[in-house]
Design a protein that fits this description.
By secondary structure, the chain is α+β, with helices and mostly antiparallel strands. The protein has one domain. The chain has 2 helices and 3 strands, in the order βββαα. It has helices at about 35-75, 75-95, and strands at about 10, 15-20, 25-30. A 3-stranded antiparallel beta sheet has the order 1-2-3, covered by helices on one side. Strand 2 and strand 3 (about 25-30) form a beta hairpin. Helix 1 (about 35-75) runs antiparallel to helix 2 (about 75-95).
């Protein structure tokens, strides 16, 4: 899957930004582009974002299963919208998994 542990950004004034978990360097982002720091923090947040997306999919599927008949009867647009959201979240996870 991916390297476990809390990923953090370590900043070095000349070399750039390192993202790692204290034992392993996950990524090195060199200075020279304005977005270097933001990119480093986005990479460091990746495991948390991945897990939150996975949890959200599970919760939406549970909600959809529990309330499907009610939403189809009284708010059919919500059923379609939940399916659309789940689809896009699954696509994001697939991209993160290299699929």
């Amino acid at each position: 899957m991916y390297t476990k542990g809390e990923w953090e950004v370590i900043e070095y004034p000349v070399q750039g930004h390192y993202v790692g978990n204290g034992e392993v360097t996950i990524a090195t982002i060199h200075e020279g582009i304005p977005e270097a720091q933001a990119n480093a923090h986005l990479i460091a947040a990746a495991p948390d974002l991945y897990e939150e997306i996975r949890t959200t999919i599970e919760e939406l599927e549970t909600y959809q299963g529990e309330w499907l008949s009610v939403t189809e009867l009284y708010a059919p647009e919500w059923t379609h919208e939940i399916k659309r959201i789940i689809f896009h979240l699954e696509q994001a996870l697939a991209k993160a998994e290299g699929k």
